[in-house]
Amino acid sequence: MLANNPIISYQKTVRLPIEIYIKKPSDFIINNISQLLPNWKIHPASIIIVLFYCQIPIKTVNQGVETEKKRLKQEFLQFANSLRVILQKEKCLIEIIDPQEGKPINTNQGAINFDIVATIHQLLGFSFENTNEGCKILNHPTQKNAIYPTILLSNRCPKTINSILQKLF
Ligand code: B12
């Protein structure tokens, strides 16, 4: 059972779902925006959370997981760049966050990186587990660890972003 009613789309390389949630940024993001996105002179008004279903759980370190993460990063970059073009035509400012590193892709990186797991835990209420190596992994309600979490930010409110995306998917 999925809370928060995501918009559902599908990946290009395999026919697996993508869940899209549009939320107001957490207090942490608002309060630390100059350190997270130093080029942003205004506060972001929404955060777009995009969860890609994985073909295998991505909890361990092995060649299969690395190959799957590479595929998912390409899927994300393609998705994020086409969304950016569409939203920019609607006069929305959009920032893509590198899902591997938590740094902005199109503007300068700040003193703090985005903690993607903490952000999604706070905004969607998903639990997470700590691995032995000090990494946190989300526990999705149905997919468990087989989820590749990504985020984007925008200067437009969730209602505006939602109505643009509802028309697309
Ligand atoms: C670093 C990292 C690792 C390190 C962890 C050790 C370390 N700390 O150096 C290493 C390399 C070991 C690692 C391994 C793995 N990782 Co890792 N990792 C990350 C990474 C880049 C950052 C995690 C982290 O340290 N966060 C805290 C950092 C950012 O900040 P900090 O200074 O410690 O604390 C500040 C932040 O928390 C900040 N903050 C920033 N934003 C926010 C937001 C909120 C709301 C709050 C409250 C705070 C906050 O406030 C603090 C103070 O300034 C994330 C991607 C990301 N950017 O989130 C992936 C990520 C967590 N990893 C991921 C994965 C999959 C793995 C692996 C499990 C598998 C793999 N093959 O990659 C392996 C682990 C294998 C194992 N069994 O342990 C995935 C998890 C996917 C999921 N389903 O949840 C992520 C999200 C990357 C991705 N998109 O795929 N990882």
Report on this model:
The mean pLDDT is 94. The protein has one domain (7-168). The protein is 33% helix and 22% strand. The protein is globular, with a radius of gyration of 15 Å. It has 169 residues and is α+β, with helices and mostly antiparallel strands. Bound molecules: cobalamin.
Topology:
Elements (H helix, E strand, L loop, with lengths): L6 E4 L6 E7 L3 H5 L1 H4 L9 E8 L9 H27 L4 E3 L19 H9 L2 E4 L5 E4 L7 E8 L3 H11 L1
Antiparallel strand pairs: 1-2, 2-3, 3-7, 4-7, 5-6
The structure holds cobalamin.
What's the gist of this structure?
The protein is built from 5 helices and 7 strands; from the N terminus they run ββααβαβαβββα. The protein has 169 residues and is an alpha+beta fold. The protein has one domain.
User: Helix- and strand-based class?
Assistant: alpha+beta
Which strand order do you get reading across the main beta sheet?
Answer: 1-2-3-7-4
Task: Evaluate the radius of gyration.
Answer: 15 Å
Mean pLDDT: 94
From the N-terminal CA to the C-terminal CA, the straight-line distance is 21 Å
Residues in β-strands, percent: 15-25%
Largest β-sheet summary: 5 strands, antiparallel
Descriptive tags:
169 residues; alpha+beta; five-stranded antiparallel β-sheet; two-stranded antiparallel sheet; binds cobalamin
